[in-house]
Amino acid sequence: MTVSTIQFSVIVPNYNNAATLARAIESILGQDYPAHEIIVVDDGSRDESAAVVARFGARVRYIFQENAGVSAARNHGARVATGNWLAFLDADDIYLPGRLSAHAAWLARDPGLDFLFGDQAQRSPDDQHQLMAISASAAGRAFVARQPEVVELVLEPDDFGAMIADGFSEIRTLSIPRATFIALDGFPLEHKIGEDLHFFIRLFLRSRRGGVVNLPLAVYYIYEGSALRKDPIGAQRGFIVALESLRIEMDIASVAIRRGWLAKLRQGRLSLAYMYLRQQRKRTALASVLPLLRDTPSLRSLRDIVSVARGL
Predict the structure, then answer these.
(1) Domains of the chain with bracketed CATH
(2) Model pTM?
(3) I want to staple 239 with a disulfide (CB 3.0 to 4.6 A). Which of 87, 180, 194, 213 is the partner?
């Protein structure tokens, strides 16, 4: 495979992000490895988003749909894409220089990779740095320590569980064959929270080798008005529901993936319990962790439950 045969369709879901949409598009157009196409899927915006895209002319394809959510917008873009690889960027985030070329160059040398990720910077809206995704995760630190002098980190099936439990998989740095995305039926429409991880777990289930470029490839901006911050308890409940919906898949998953899924579920239940405790909802907090005894009957689970019960 040569670099020229790798064609990235970059999908940009948008909902009332006229203020930041041009910045996102410009970060794609500014890549040293040009995208095959940029597709903005407008999810029912009522602001000036269409006019913003129009300024870029034929360089950006604009599709309007009635409001159906970010997953539906991403899936729509993937269905109409003509590139053989997909990449995604939310309308209020940006790609950093080299985002596409870093993946294209590696794929040209190693076409057997099933997916690729990279590092990601997290910033406040005024561009104040907060953290880097790889160094902020246990999996990321372990992978780098294992290959400290290597920029291109190869992930094997035994690594996928760590990516689920405490990894750095992010939609902005994902590159995936379009055929794989279509075979997985895209992002789940029934989950508004946790849909990214739901998709990544299903991707790991069918993958043999992945790649991670240990360089910052994108910026994720954190906004106070996000759904996660408006209703943290509701978001956490939704996240657990998304994970729980994969229970049947876990029956046939590898030991590593099932272990990672259980660890993530445990973290989610404990986080929810302590949120309830801070609201003095003591019985609800205890009820949220009791399923740990079903999932992982062990002394550790019993200790988790006791730690919540002591908050009663």
Answers:
(1) 3-223 (3.90.550.10), 229-309 (no CATH)
(2) 0.95
(3) 194
